[in-house]
Design a protein that fits this description.
By secondary structure, the protein is an alpha+beta fold. It has 18 helices and 15 strands. The strands form six sheets. A three-stranded antiparallel β-sheet has the order 3-2-4. A hairpin with a 5-residue loop joins strand 2 and strand 3. Helix 2 crosses helix 7, helix 14 packs antiparallel against helix 18 and helix 16 packs antiparallel against helix 18. The relative contact order is 0.10.
Length: 571
């Protein structure tokens, strides 16, 4: 008999919209009352991202087979007991004058809640949602299967699975939220969340491999993503905004929606292992519920005791131009084995996502070297086909999430998460015409970088020289540059948030330049005021005295040159 069924047990952490309090809900409850919850509220945002994708896999599976009323599409044959789709859809079978999948999406959005078919589908697969089971353990293989696949696998402990600790067997995590034996103790609801997250953010420190494979092994698909998702006013809206029920928005997807969506729970444990050796993670729900490891829990585990399990590595999923993944930024490779092709691009630590606006929006010079995240392309379709009027002034929240690693290729241990978000009016976001808002914002971001490099950076380099630092020592330059970016960060976010489609582009651009000029000036003034005796005395360079005063005067001249288009008085 299975134990701890995720359909009924309360394991998903949510933030209630009415009380602002967190609570735990079951898988069935989260879909029945999604509109009552503001957001997921697990231990980490990376964990929430992994859980969000499981929830999306349920919706994408159900509504690739059933319409908003819970009726099977006329062109799909469904197994009445399992609700599985029996054959892929042929595009010729679809109506010529409409997209039935997108019509389903529109109808779901309008009704504001999910129909009963979601609950019925989950019930049909109840036996595959037990966290502990001797046949279909959720996201796992059975102990007997682990013995056959990897001679029992390598032992793994609670402190390894819990990503707030991520302690290895060789190095103690000194600043963990708990100590000693408590590090290995996990409640069943924690186990469910950390299991899902671990399959997405794994690392490579463990040794055992399934079938002793020589193939490159996964460190977790999510680990390599520059994760992107859209957040609505509540969890229902968030789920809907990220639920892609069409492929017409992207010609490179090759009718992805026509494929049978097969989440991991619709396969047996061994079938789930097999698809990684056969490169059969070829549909979105398989990707959303992918495994990086064969994992086996002990069925007799009891809460309050130290937890351990057994794991073994699985082959990694193809990263190169795997565009069925919509929730990532993409980077163009100019060198290396993936030269002239796209691969997922992680977010950079300590740099606001707006500083890489061109990567986020998939725009820039040489347009073929940029690709928009699929989720943003999908949102364009949503707005341009039926909801543009209603969503025109909707403040869309674009969230970014990545996991920072330790830089050690033998372990890739997680050390921190990289999270950020920006907000803007929908009408601004979808205005991607050549002379539209997105192009203007991207130009201003590039201009911001350029004017900082031509004003503050030369000033700080001169101070660095005065203080006797080596010409290749950029630590002072990088320090002051990042201080300036930190100071303008909230100003840029506020400026972006307040843009309305009807605003004058010229006026908004000038508004930002005024903010930027003042911030650069203030940073330079602060540096000048903190000068020491050596800065005042200076050095001789090119038969002239270079000190803080001469450097500051040149800094002021550079500001005048870079912002000469602004009128007197700052405008």
């Amino acid at each position: 008999m299975g134990r701890y069924n995720l359909l009924d047990e309360k394991w998903i952490m949510v933030l209630r919209e009415d009380t602002g309090q967190t609570e735990k809900v079951s898988l069935k409850e989260v879909f029945a009352h999604a509109g009552d919850y503001y957001d997921l509220a697990g231990e980490m945002k990376t964990q929430d991202f992994a859980v969000l994708r499981v929830l999306l896999a349920v919706l994408q599976t159900v509504f690739s087979r059933f319409d908003s009323e819970g009726n099977p599409y006329d062109f799909i044959e469904i197994n009445e007991n399992t609700f599985q789709q029996l054959e892929p859809v042929d595009r010729e079978d679809l109506p010529d004058d409409e997209d039935p999948y997108f019509e389903t999406w529109l109808n779901l959005w309008k009704r504001g809640k999910f129909p009963e078919i979601v609950q019925e589908y989950l019930e049909a697969w109840r036996d595959h949602f037990y966290l502990f089971d001797d046949k279909y353990p959720f996201y796992q293989v059975t102990p007997g299967e682990m013995d056959a696949l990897a001679n029992g696998g390598g032992q793994f402990f609670g402190k390894n699975l819990n990503r707030m600790i991520s302690e290895s067997n060789n190095k103690i995590a000194l600043f963990a939220p708990v100590t000693g034996e408590e590090k290995d103790k996990l409640c069943d609801d924690q186990l469910a969340r950390w299991l899902i997250m671990f399959q997405g953010y794994t690392g490579t420190g463990d040794k055992k491999k399934v079938n002793d494979t020589n193939r490159s092994c996964s460190k977790g698909w999510l680990y390599d993503l520059g994760g992107i998702y859209l957040k609505g006013h509540n969890l229902f809206e968030t789920l809907m905004l990220n639920c892609i029920l069409s492929s017409d928005f992207d010609k490179k997807l090759d009718d992805e929606i026509m494929k049978i969506q097969i989440p991991s729970w619709e396969r047996s444990p061994l079938e789930n292992v097999d698809i990684y050796f056969k490169n059969q993670v070829d549909n979105r729900t398989s990707l959303y519920t992918n495994w990086s490891r064969a994992i086996s829990f002990m069925n007799d585990y009891q809460e309050g005791t130290p937890f351990s399990c057994f794991i073994a590595k699985l082959p990694e999923i193809n990263h190169v131009e795997n565009f069925i993944e919509p929730m990532t930024c993409w980077g163009w490779n100019n060198t290396g084995e993936n030269k002239n092709r796209f691969t997922p691009k992680k977010h950079r630590p300590d740099e606001a996502v707006w500083r890489h606006f061109n990567v986020l929006m998939g725009i820039g010079e040489g347009g073929e070297h940029f690709r928009q995240p699929g989720i943003l392309a999908w949102y364009h379709k949503v707005c341009e086909n039926g909801l543009v009027g209603k969503l025109q002034h909707f403040k869309v929240v674009i969230c970014s999430v990545s996991m920072r690693d330790d830089g050690n290729a033998t372990s890739w241990s997680p050390v921190d998460e990289i999270i950020d978000e920006i907000q803007m009016e929908t009408a601004v976001l979808i205005d991607d015409n050549k002379d539209g808002w997105i192009e203007l914002i991207n130009t201003l971001v590039d201009d911001t970088k350029s004017r900082i490099e031509k004003t503050l950076v030369p000033f700080v380099r001169q101070i660095s020289a005065i203080r006797g630092y080596d010409s290749k020592d950029y630590h002072l330059v990088e320090q002051e540059r990042e201080r300036l970016y930190l100071e303008i960060d909230q100003s840029f976010r506020d400026w972006l948030y307040k843009i309305k489609e009807t605003d004058s582009m010229n006026d908004k651009a000038l508004e930002w330049y005024v903010i930027l000029k003042k911030a650069i000036q203030n940073r330079g003034d602060e540096i000048s005021r903190s000068a020491n005796l050596r800065d005042l005395k200076g050095i001789e360079k090119d038969k002239k005295i270079l000190n803080i005063a001469t450097a500051y005067n040149e800094f002021k001249r550079n500001i005048v040159v870079q912002f000469k288009f602004l009128k007197e008085g700052g405008r």
